[in-house]
Design a protein that fits this description.
Belongs to the binding-protein-dependent transport system permease family. CysTW subfamily. Pfam families: BPD_transp_1 (PF00528). By secondary structure, the protein is mostly helical. It has one domain: MetI-like (MetI-like fold, Orthogonal Bundle), CATH 1.10.3720.10. It is built from eleven helices and no strands. Helix 4 crosses helix 6. The radius of gyration is 21 Å and the shape is globular. The protein starts with a helix and ends with a helix.
Length: 245
């Protein structure tokens, strides 16, 4: 099966799952709960978006900067250690990260932001390292041959050519962050997890899905927006080369 066909099958499967969840939510009374409590839903959604936005922006700034820093010749020796740390960190469940951070920082919104930041930091860092390291060395040599300085090579050659991988890491991290932010309720961070876990504790499927459906919609919407942004920041020539690869 070709890659495109596989992607098509995955997309159709996701659509089927989403439709099934929406039908389940409708018959469970989730939409009626949303209609009856629009103020609560709006407030919790704003909290959720705030958690995701702040933690994701901080993760992007730190991870991309650290990735660039480590790929410089002087600090290349630390790359293996950082990559191993990133790979191990990826295996730690989000709930475990929240529990660990809570044990040191206590309950509260700031604790949730820190835990979500750490959780989304690793995929962006890993993709930044991979993207920069996979830039064709002949391109770098050509830049040096044209008299470019190291800073110019970074901004004009390395980062543009690594942007596809970096954006892939950002999209993955932010979408995962949308789902992980639901767990922030457990440590006093608020968000749509309030409805999800309230529904679970009350054995009320309608309330639980009233929180779950907006999380799904947020994740899909953010992925769509980041996909559009990705098309803007990746050069058409590079995109064409990647599609042909």
């Amino acid at each position: 099966m070709s890659n495109r066909r596989m992607v098509g099958v995955i997309k159709v499967s996701l659509y089927v799952v989403i439709v099934a969840i929406l039908l389940w939510a409708y018959f469970a009374g989730a939409f009626q709960f949303i209609v009856d409590n629009p103020g609560d839903l709006l407030y919790l959604t704003k909290q959720h978006i705030k958690l995701v936005s702040i933690s994701s922006i901080l993760a992007i700034l730190v991870a991309v900067s650290l990735g660039v820093f480590i790929t410089r010749p002087k600090f290349k020796k630390f790359e293996g250690v950082v990559m191993n740390f990133a790979n191990v960190g990826q295996t730690v469940p989000s709930l475990a990260i929240l529990a660990l951070v809570m044990s040191y920082l206590g309950l509260g919104w700031q604790t949730a932001v820190f835990a979500l930041w750490f959780n989304s930091l690793l995929p962006i860092l890993r993709n930044t390292l991979a993207g920069i390291n996979n830039v064709d060395s002949s391109i770098i040599d050509a830049g040096r041959g044209m008299g470019m300085k190291e800073g110019q090579i970074l901004w004009k050659l390395e980062l543009p050519n690594a942007m596809y991988a970096i954006m892939g890491g950002i999209r993955t991290a932010v979408v995962i962050n949308v789902g992980s932010a639901a767990l922030a309720f457990l440590i006093g961070g608020g968000g749509l997890g309030d409805l999800i876990f309230t529904g679970i504790s009350l054995y009320d499927t309608g309330i639980m899905l009233a929180g779950t459906v907006p999380v799904i919609i947020l994740a899909i919407s953010i992925d769509f927006l980041l996909g559009g942004f990705e098309k803007l920041v990746i050069s058409k020539g590079l995109k064409r080369d990647l599609d042909m690869a």
